[in-house]
Design goal:
The chain is an alpha+beta fold and about 270 residues long. The protein has helices at about 5-25, 30-50, 185-190, and strands at about 60-70, 70-80, 85-95, 105, 115, 120-140, 145-165, 165-170, 175, 190-195, 205-220, 225-245, 255-269.
């Protein structure tokens, strides 16, 4: 049986719950205003950071094109900020190493065939999977400044050897060959018509595992904090499980040391 006291408590609880619930209900107009204020605050923060030249972010993603002293490559990098000046980076590179003695023939004149490289027996590509650290040495100072940072990274790599093919003339017959003990005389001393083409040898690739270390300086000259426009210069070393044959009549190498310069573009969040 309900007493007056119990009825009073039920009514009081109901009124209190209704009041609290009503306080939590936000009208569409209030929601829109809240979003507007948050957006304005974010813009003001970006303007302030832009004026101060401070690189502050949670994560960044970028693409780069690199020109190396012995080849070229492209890469993708993902970074996560760990402190005001330090970030962890993860990076995937695809590169090609070219031998310094490579020279395309014919240098001039008229030829029916594709240009070719005399003595080349393999194309050599590399996939790098690495991780490391980025440390900001100096902030931009202002929106027109340049931020300077250093990176060091290392990891595993897979070298890919693709046989190099030539079109040759053998007893009046056109043949497309790679370097083998059987065709070595034709490959080196035969009548060479030209290169065998880019589509040859992909199903014959051999894997050469290895490891690498890399360090570089990065100059970030992007005007806005959320956009990455940078220049990178650095050096790297690569060590493979065995010597890599690229050219005939040249010493095969197992360790490669190179410098690089790269252009980078991306964004931060």
């Amino acid at each position: 049986m309900l007493t007056v006291k119990k009825i009073y408590l039920i009514i009081s609880f109901t009124l209190l719950s209704t009041f609290l619930f009503s306080q939590n209900i936000v009208s569409p107009k209030e929601q829109k205003e809240t979003k507007r204020i948050e957006k304005k605050k974010k813009i003001n923060d970006l303007i302030r950071q832009d004026e101060e030249g401070v690189l502050v972010y949670k994560k960044q993603s970028l693409l780069g094109v690199q020109f190396r002293t012995n080849g070229y490559g492209v890469f993708y990098e993902n970074g996560r900020m760990r402190s005001q000046r330090n970030a962890t980076i993860y990076r995937l590179d695809f590169t090609e190493i070219k031998h310094p003695k490579e020279e395309k023939l014919p240098e001039g004149g008229f030829s029916f065939g594709n240009p070719y490289i005399y003595g080349k027996i393999n194309n050599f590509y590399q996939f790098h999977l690495g991780f490391g650290r980025q440390h900001i040495l100096g902030q931009k100072g202002n929106k027109n400044g340049v931020a300077l940072s250093t990176q060091y990274s290392g990891g595993f790599l897979v070298g890919l050897l693709r046989p190099y093919y030539l079109d040759v003339l053998d007893n009046g017959t056109n043949k497309t060959i790679k370097f083998t003990s059987q065709d070595s005389a034709l490959f080196v001393g035969g009548y060479i018509l030209g290169g065998g083409g880019f589509n040859k040898g992909w199903n014959e690739m051999k894997f050469k595992p290895g490891a690498f270390l890399k360090t570089n300086l990065r100059f970030d000259f992007g005007r806005f904090n959320e956009v990455i426009s940078a220049l990178e210069v650095g050096v790297s070393g690569e060590f493979y499980s065995e010597k890599i044959p690229i050219m005939l009549f040249q010493k095969d190498k197992q360790f490669y040391f190179q410098g690089h310069i790269a252009l980078l573009f991306g964004h931060r969040k």
